[in-house]
Design brief:
The protein is an alpha+beta fold. It is built from ten helices and six strands; from the N terminus they run H-E-H-H-E-H-H-E-H-H-E-H-E-E-H-H. The protein has a single domain, classed as Outer membrane efflux proteins (OEP). It is elongated, with a radius of gyration of 40 Å.
Length: 437
Amino acid sequence: MRVKTIVATLACTLSAITVQAQGPRYISVDEAVTIALQNNSNIKMSKLDEKTANANYHQTDAIFLPQISVGYTAFSTNNPLNAFGFLLQQESVTAMDFDPEKLNNPGSTQNYSTQVEAKLPLFNLDMIYARKGAKAQEEMYKYKTERTEEYIEFEVCKAYAQLQMSYQARDILQKSLEDVEQIHQSVTNFYNQGLIQKSDVLNAQVQVNTIEAALAKAESNIHNASDGLRLIMGMENEREVFVTDSLQQKMALHQTQTLSSYRSDIMALNKAVDATNMMVKSSKMAFLPRINAFGTYNLNDDKAFKFRNDSYLVGIQLSWTIFSGNQNRSKIKSSQFQRDKMQEELNLHIKQSQLDLDKTKRDLNDSQIEINKQKTSVEQADEALRILGNRHREGLASTTDLLMAQAQLSQQRLLLAQTIMSYNITEAYWHFLTKTE
């Protein structure tokens, strides 16, 4: 029963590993990262957000550049005032037009007007600060894109480590299958010689079958792991299996690093705080007067698509909204609350990041201790199997004990590989947490 339990545990552990593939192709982790940075959908979406923020920022160019519009309008009226005004605009007034009868009953009068209108902002402090806020928001999205790229790099390293583990598990099972087949052959020979019972042969065959099933599962896990890596790399349409470097422990060489205020996600939140602060200032500046220049140029004629009799109008306007029904005052408060919220979010994020950093450092130390213990366990299990193998050949150890020792060795090898994979993923996460600009 203990043999079956250990082998079942081995099979269940393997089934927990996920990631896919077909037709082996070697890929290094650096190559996988490079491809992911070019093709990953999350990075593409983040860059689109960045471009959107850039476009929003350039919308504020309007506070410096003129606004020019052109219009063409056709009028027809019998209104005495408008009819006489049309004549003045067309510069076609004659003495006969002052006849009271004609003034009072002008009949149908047409005017075809072409107008070019221009507006030029001169002094709008609220828009100046709104532009600065839009610039800060654009920079925020740049940092968010950078952090997204760093996160995808971590995800690639994680998926790559899982694929390495899948190959390592398959190799361990293949070696285990070879050992169990040798045991099965040896037990069969003993049975043929009448030295042991048939139950020993059956127990050996059961373990061969169990490992063969686990080996098939391991092959599927390799395909699953390759598919997961491919998805992160943005290569969904390909179906080839990736071959990786062998699973080895990576050493974290910079565990003395501290949380940097220049990390991209922290910089992004800082820029978000700056943006909301600029919006507060913009709302306050809305209480100040605005100065804008304007001008129009007109062409009027009594015939369609004729362009004669020009005129212009230019001026400077000072406007000052003294009271807006508390709209500006409430807008200032809303902007201040939003700024305070962003500041609290920044403070909380820094605290959480520091906790993650401290926890990851402890996890690395714990994983290192576990690796050392697992290496010792593998050596001890290997020695135990060697001793029981010798005793079994001499008829001094049971087949069940030998099978149990072999299953225990395979389990310890797999646990060591899993611990190394976990350590490498934690090390990649440590690198992600301590990343700076």
